[in-house]
UniProtKB/TrEMBL annotation:
Membrane-spanning segments: none
Highest classification ranks of the organism: Bacteria, Bacillati, Actinomycetota, Actinomycetes, Micromonosporales
One Pfam family, short name: LTD
Name the UniProt record assigns to this protein: LTD domain-containing protein
Signal peptide (from-to): 1-28
Keyword Signal: yes
Ranges where the LTD domain occurs: 195-316
Record key words, sorted: Signal
């Protein structure tokens, strides 16, 4: 591992890493987050991938941390579909539709880079479920390639902004919008097989900014599923989610009426045929920012087959329609 790091990173950087005592933290240099002189700066670590856990998590032996014990590293701002069975044997893996494709692509990138990775973050303390949040890059043909950006360009992960780690948002949301426009992988509405009512052009709208304070008006935040067809659309077993792991599954008997809609409100209430309640303790969808931090989010509708049937990414950055009228 050290010889490979030496050839990629240079002797001086490696010497600095080795100077850390055996019980000390990993050495971290600083550099522009995105490679350009302008823009935010990041902490930088290097390491060797021990294994790819799934489509958004790797185990990495970090150079200079005084141990050969790998750390589980979670990709910044990228959310793969959930893998449920983990194995080094590809044929034994199981998971939601698109999850194994994301894992395979990440393995391909790591292999192409010889297993050496550059890890960057704006805050060393950023983490998700006790896993350090890091942007991960591999060196291919002499250039560092951001694996999260690659996965989004291929439509294999959702864009999931994390508050303090915003340097990548502008690139990632455009990459996701392009994959959605081109119908790649997750955004191919029948990639997982023909789902129910496959011919119905169902649409989805999210009202992410409730009137007043979001925390005081949870039910003012909602997802609306529209059925523009002349036939009723049963959606029992379908589910909506945000870019994190929060999801709401439509209960038995749920039907979107012809030329009608069903709402899922973020908070609690008494359900009716067309107004349902997620029961979340706080707001679900992040509000966008229109500054260099480029925050945003998305809402997604999946059918029981695992196909992503409708979505709304915001703020819109590509082929933007007129703002939908609110209906409640």
């Amino acid at each position: 591992m050290l010889r490979r790091l030496l050839s990629v990173l240079g002797a001086s950087a490696l010497a600095g890493a080795l100077a850390i005592g055996p019980a000390g933290p990993a050495a971290a240099a600083t550099a522009p987050c995105l490679g350009a002189a302008a823009g935010p700066r990041c902490l930088v670590w290097t390491g060797k991938v021990v294994r790819v856990n799934d489509g958004d998590t790797l185990s990495v032996d970090i150079a200079g941390d005084g141990t050969s014990t790998p750390r589980s590293i979670r990709l910044i701002n990228a959310q793969a579909m959930e893998q449920t069975v983990y194995s080094s044997v590809v044929q034994r893996r199981r998971g939601e539709c698109h999850s194994l494709a994301a894992t395979a692509r990440l393995e391909q990138l790591v292999k192409a880079g010889g297993g050496v990775v550059r890890l960057t973050a704006q805050q060393a303390s950023s983490s998700s479920r006790a896993r350090p949040l890091r942007s991960v890059a591999v060196r291919i043909n002499g250039s560092w390639r951001d694996v999260g950006l690659d996965l989004m360009r291929h439509g294999l992960t959702l864009w999931q902004p994390f508050g303090a780690e915003w340097a990548w948002n502008a690139q990632y949301r455009v990459a996701t919008a392009q994959a959605a426009r081109d119908g790649l992988n997750l955004f191919d509405t029948d990639a997982c097989g023909a789902g129910p009512a496959a011919a119905t052009p169902v649409t989805l709208t999210v009202n992410y900014d409730a009137p007043g304070a979001d925390e005081q008006n949870l039910n003012g935040e909602w997802v609306r599923v529209d059925n523009p067809s002349d036939a009723a659309l049963p959606v029992a077993g379908w589910w909506v989610r945000d870019s994190a792991l929060r999801r709401y599954t439509f209960p038995a008997g749920t039907v979107v009426p012809p030329r009608g809609a069903v709402y899922v409100h973020a908070g609690s209430g008494t359900p009716t045929a067309t107004h349902l309640y997620w029961g979340q303790p706080g707001p679900v969808f992040d509000n966008p920012s229109f500054d260099q931090q480029a925050h945003g989010d998305g809402a997604y509708l999946f059918d029981p087959q695992g196909d992503l049937r409708a979505w709304m990414l915001y703020p819109c950055v590509l082929s933007c329609p007129a703002t939908p009228a609110r209906r409640t």
